[in-house]
Design brief:
The chain is of the alpha/beta class and about 475 residues long. The protein is built from 14 helices and 16 strands. The strands form 5 sheets. Strands 1, 8, 9, 10, 11 and 12 form a 6-stranded mixed beta sheet that branches. A 4-stranded parallel beta sheet has the order 2-3-4-5. Strand 11 (about 370-380) and strand 12 form a beta hairpin. The longest helix is centred in the N-terminal third of the chain and has 31 residues, at about 35-65. It starts with a helix and ends with a strand. This is GH3 domain-containing protein.
């Protein structure tokens, strides 16, 4: 508000005219407003978004240039704003004292208070505070820079009730948020139907890659019903030609379906950190073949952990910022997770090494081991850039032995790559029952790969369940 008062009067009046139209117009759908007004509002909102993102970028630059100082400030804030006392460490602001006197705890231990067994308050994605707004602003700015046409009016649709953006944009940026959507719709079917009515989409959004996988599976299963609804005008005006396009696109199979439905589509925006790798791979191999994927942030139950500033990267790379929550990195050593070394701060991370994330926030978590393992792939000023590797303790019993989930996934991907023309849709992992008596005889160590739950032909189209 103070910045608005400092603007020249003519510019201030112009902003008021463009960003604060009559209330009656605001309540109308965008299509019902005068086109010139909607266009002006959209351009002005885009300009304000760029300004706000540039301001957040400058703050990020300063904080990452002085990572140790920024982390000290983050810890001080987390402890000062904490929702529960810390006994003798109450009021501590020294990082060394904090790390030396407060033990590491696992996420399971952090779920209950030491006395009374009361559960800690949950952290929804809407409660991440300023970090979530920073992630949203910088993520949208990076997305619009990599794909300039995405933020054009009517260019975005979210097809799931949850959003990949951790915080809804406030006014006036709300003009850019969910440009295509069914008013008040929460059911995925209604959201998908509204998106199908808009052939000019340039970006498709979903809360997670797994949710989007379910959307496309539902589209194939209920495609005829959706086509009939569009042809009948339920809801909205009848679109028989668009219904015919939907039927024709579905008849050609799942591979490249998204681009057949939306020829201008450029990017799919989902949250994919933390176990979404296979869902992204399945989408990229079939329904979303030929499209880029962008995960704007790395979020955990304790807060916003990482920012993705590189939409052009094929796999999500995340900058670990030095602000709240306070992040420590616990080196992961083979077979020594329980007796791991002491933690390191962000500026001390080494490229190529793997670390478990340790979080402290203002909502009650104190030195909580998340179980998420990341690998340092680069640096941004003094802060590490990481990729998600997997979770500790996620082991699979394939053949009487424990195999880490990431090791199994890599082996399975390599095996599928040796099967000409096959595409992996999904997989399960069970001990084989067809070996019969052989299971009771000594066998050499083997890695038994479970087949996908669908038979596939060379184009990867599902032919039916086993």
């Amino acid at each position: 508000m103070l910045l608005l008062l400092l603007l020249p009067l003519p510019l201030l009046l112009l902003l008021l005219l463009l960003l604060l139209p009559p209330l009656a117009l605001l309540r109308q759908p965008q299509d019902a407003r005068p086109s010139w007004l909607a266009g002006l509002q959209h351009r002005m909102a885009g300009g304000v978004l760029c300004w706000a993102a540039a301001w957040q970028q400058r703050r990020l630059e300063q904080s990452t240039l002085h990572a140790s100082q920024s982390q000290h400030q983050a810890l001080t804030w987390c402890l000062r704003e904490s929702r529960r006392p810390r006994g003798p460490l109450q009021g501590t602001t020294d990082i060394s004292t904090f790390r030396n006197h407060l033990p590491l705890i696992k996420a399971s231990q952090a779920q209950e208070e030491e006395s009374g067994g009361q559960l800690l308050p949950s952290m929804s994605t809407q409660c991440y505070g300023e970090a979530s707004l920073q992630a949203t602003l910088l993520g949208r700015a990076a997305l619009s820079k990599a794909f300039p046409e995405v933020l054009t009016p009517g260019g975005i649709a979210c097809v799931t009730p949850t959003s990949p953006w951790l915080r809804p944009l406030p006014w006036p940026w709300r003009i850019l948020d969910q440009v295509v959507s069914a008013p008040g719709a929460k059911h995925p079917g209604a959201l998908l139907l509204e998106a199908l009515r808009s052939p000019g989409l340039r970006a498709l959004e979903a809360g997670t890659a797994t949710e989007l996988l379910d959307v496309f599976s539902g589209l194939e299963a209920n495609g005829e019903e959706l086509a009939e609804a569009m042809a009948a005008g339920n809801p909205g005006p009848p679109l028989p030609s668009r219904a015919a396009e939907l039927r024709e696109a579905l008849d050609l199979g799942p591979r490249g379906l998204a681009l057949r439905l939306w020829p201008k589509l450029q990017v799919v925006v989902t949250l994919d950190a933390g176990g979404q790798t296979e869902a992204v791979a399945a989408l990229g191999a079939l329904w979303c073949h030929g499209l880029a994927f962008f995960s704007p942030a790395y979020a955990a139950s304790g807060g916003v952990v990482g920012l993705n500033l590189w939409p052009e990267q094929a796999h999500g790379h995340y900058l670990l910022p030095p602000g709240a929550p306070f992040i420590e990195l616990l080196p992961v050593k083979e077979g020594a997770q329980e007796e791991a070394a002491s933690t390191v701060l962000l500026a001390e991370a080494q490229k190529g090494e793997e670390y478990e994330l340790v979080l402290t926030n203002h909502a009650g978590l104190a030195r909580c081991r998340l179980g998420d393992v990341v690998q340092v792939v680069g640096a941004y000023n003094q802060c590490p850039v990481v990729r998600f590797v997997g979770r500790l303790g996620q082991a699979l019993n394939v053949r009487g032995e424990d195999i880490q989930e990431d090791v199994f996934s890599e082996a399975l991907s390599r095996a599928v790559g040796q099967w000409p023309g096959a595409k992996l849709l999904d997989h399960s992992c069970v001990e084989s029952s067809i070996l019969g008596k052989l299971l009771r005889q000594p066998l050499p160590p083997v890695l038994e790969l479970a087949a996908p739950p669908y038979h596939t032909h060379p184009e990867g189209r599902a032919l039916g369940k086993r």
